[in-house]
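Input for the complex:
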Amino acid sequence: MSSAARGCWHCGESLPGAEAPQARVAGTTHAVCCEGCRAAAEWIDQLGLADYYRLRSAPASRAPESSEASRTSAAWARPGLERHVVRELDSDRREAMLLVEGLRCSACVWLIERALGALPGVLHVQVNAAARRARITWTAPCSLPRILEALLRAGYRPLPLDAAALDDSRRREQRTALKQLVVAGFGAMQAMMYASGLYFGVFDGIDATARELLRWLGLLVATPVVFYSARPFFAGALRSLRARRLGMDVPVAIAIALIYAASVYEAFHGGAEVYFDSVGMFVFFLLTGRYLEMRARHRAGDLTDALARLTPAFADRVRADGTLERVGAIELAAGDVVLIAAGGGVPADGALESERCRVDEALVSGESAPVSKRRGAPLIAGSVLVEGPVEMRVERVGADTVLAGILALVTRAAIERPRLAAAGERAAAGFVARVLTLAALTAIGWSFADPSRAFTATLAVLVVSCPCAFALAVPAAITRALGVLARHGVLVVRPDAIEGLASATHIVFDKTGTLTDRLALERIDTIGSLDRAQALLLAGALARGSRHPASMAIANAIDDDQALPAVEDARTEASGGIEGRVEGRILRLGRADFALGCDTIPAEYADAVLLADATGSIAAFRLSEQLRAEARATVAALVADGLTPEIASGDDAGKVAAAAARLGIAHWKARLRPADKLARLAALRAAGARVIAVGDGINDAPVLAGADVSVALASGTELAQAASDIVLSGDLGALAEARATARQTLAILRQNQRWALVYNLSVVPLGALGFVPPWLAALGMSASSLFVVLNALRIGRREERSDTPAALTAQAVA
Amino acid sequence: MNILLVMIPLSILLLIGAGIAFFWAVDHDQFDDLDTPRLLPLLDDPDAIDAESAEEPPREAPPP
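Predicted:
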């Protein structure tokens, strides 16, 4: 693992320099970045769980200092709070659901299960890596604070969720779906076996009793499939009928009910044919598609978890006598004064009481650079204090905060989203109505002409024209497309997004975090006698100790194996820069006014990072946001595909214009707040455009929820993912590929529908006239469905041949 | 063909048995986490690890 070799052994972040703490794990010493990580690594080793480092596939998150760990966990012992999150199972067993931040791979699951299982009194630990949730049951010697402390010591940030989360609707949904799928699979296989006996019987002759027996057995195995596994279709059909529209579930439910009812009737009356095998396969296939779709949806996260993660659970309230008490954030009221530590989250909206501070408001503005605030300025719940500590007077809590407002915006936009009317759905529904009319006409016609043949002919019409091919045309193509896209790291959460992706005309990008990934050093202007490399070394020595984005950009510009001069008396000035003694002289790195120690600064250094000593400036470092490596090729591929790209950013006009110019994007808007972005989207849509929105931040969430199709980056925030239709787990390059696959899917989907239509138009009249014997009807029905499924399998085969720019970039980046 | 009268009910019984076993497995968390179990065979024997970490209090076996 290269990152472990260079960075912290535990969390993979860069090391603070030569005097990094050392952790002893499994007999070897490893450099770590901080005391918290050292404690976490050694504690893990002490438990005999050092295997974790061998098994994990992603580095852990940075561990908190141990004093902070015990303070946080002790705070959860407050009886008022514990009541919210702990459920009593019986007199001594307790249960709680924790959201575990920092849970990144399966090895984490293993570590958490072992580490908590080692605590005396813990009865059961169950960790779900996908949902990042842990369900823990414990008894007397153990308690919630002890469990939380154990997790904190291992370097995770546990967040007890409200006790209602224990009812875990997702888990129930997933279990039910799995059971229904397997019952359908078993039933379909068995019904197929009995049916093949019957088919052979048609040709080779079969004894009447054996035939009867096989039919009854078919009925036996198909019944649970129809009444248990097919329940979601009936429920869905009922729901859409109540809402007075014909959804996809309606024709499916009608098909299942009709085939089953007809087969039962035939079985009881000794009629010609039964179709239990068809009904079983039909249900099984449709359920498979639904199951895949559900798993993608669950992986994308949900809104309540996102909210819990964004705001801190606790606040340090300042009592009247100046002492602190740690209370739950839900207990705060307007007028309270709270103390916020550096690096801590702001628990509620309020006004700054201290002189000045800097906060990271990426939450609202989406931009990563911290903002300076002076006394009286508003602070927003969920933003992170970069420098502190400060005191804040609480003004708004809970549902009144800006953060809650953004969430409400997300929810509203999601509800108001015009659902893309799936073309296939309407066609199928209309078709079903026509077939039912035709079947009724056939029945009436034959009952006048020859009543004895009325039933067989009507049945032939129903079966031969079975909406299966129609009903399968869409899900078969979509299911296949979901699989192909998932292989490319494109997780489709809402399947109708595929249609939107294919038919979109515009694509709106967020800039920061979506098109760009981090700050990078662009240029060094030397002023004094030193050359660029020497200036960079001096600046790097100072910058390495700091976690400010600008410092990290400078430190990253230096090779890791380069020896840096030692820094003595390093000191960080809030919202200014770093000062330290290097090679005997005092150096300052930071904003120009700080570095030069005066207020009047040359205009050309206003936005540069300056390195200076007592005599004057040495070098100016120009930083710029670095575009993602694949951004240019992706935008080019999307433009070639007929999309109009646009940037909607909350950042300064200058930066947005520069990024747009480099990407070749003509339209851009800067300084937009979330509501403005939503308005911009609405304007585009009003002009008839179909819009794809791509974003990653919390401030993008309303935009994502309001677009025709929304795409979030998996590296972005939870909230953005929850509000989006598609999650890109890899890089942007997959987007162009996804668009191509979506278009192909739509083309095949149309082909399927046309085929089903042609087939039905040619055989239904024959059936109505009584020329189609039931066995031929069954064969035709199966063949048409098979054709549809095989055709759908062609999706994604094109890409093995194609060498689009996006595919090439994806390979190069990978 | 009388053998059918034995074989078919037998297959149905097996089917029902498999179905019940599967439902039981789903209800007892066997399918909730499909990622972690694949790691377990790679590990050393947990009892051996216990013996080494003498400083820790004796641990209960982790729940299945």
